Amino acid sequence: MTEQDDWEREFDHKWASSAEHKEPSARARMLAARWRENPPDPAPFRAAPGPVPSRRASWISTAVVLGCVAGLIVLLGYLQMRAPY
User: Fold this and answer.
1) Maximum Cα–Cα distance for the chain, whole Å?
2) Looking at per-residue confidence, does 58 or 4 come out higher?
3) What pLDDT, on the 0 to 100 scale, is given for residue 19?
4) Which residues of 28-58 are buried (b: 16+ CB within 10 A; e: fewer)?
5) What gap in Å lies between CA 77 and CA 72, rounded to an integer?
């Protein structure tokens, strides 16, 4: 047999996918064993929404950031004008 035949036989995905019994993953087995002893609490599909942040807070933070950037630009321009050539 050639090396290519060994490779094809080792990685035959059609054969693996057609298996009648598929073993669960290690994580699935671990969770099943843990939940057998201590089942999880029931939880809704979607949690209740939390408090909505005010819109003013987002505008204030945006203004602060833009103000800092504008201040930095002005400071760099001032330092560039004062620099001796």
Assistant:
1) 82
2) 58
3) 75
4) eeeeeeeeeeeeeeeeeeeeeeeeeeeeeee
5) 9
User: Residue 77: pLDDT band by 50, 70, 90 thresholds?
Assistant: very high
User: What is the C-alpha to C-alpha distance for residues 57 and 51, in angstroms, rounded to an integer?
Assistant: 14
Alpha-carbon span 37 to 33, nearest angstrom: 7
Give 3 or 66, the one with higher predicted confidence: 66
Which ranges of the chain would DSSP assign to H, the alpha helix?
3-10, 13-17, 26-37, 55-82
Q: Token pair 């203004």 is at which residue?
A: 63
Residue identified by tokens 């620099």 is 83
* C-alpha count within 13 angstroms, C-beta hemisphere, residue 53: 7
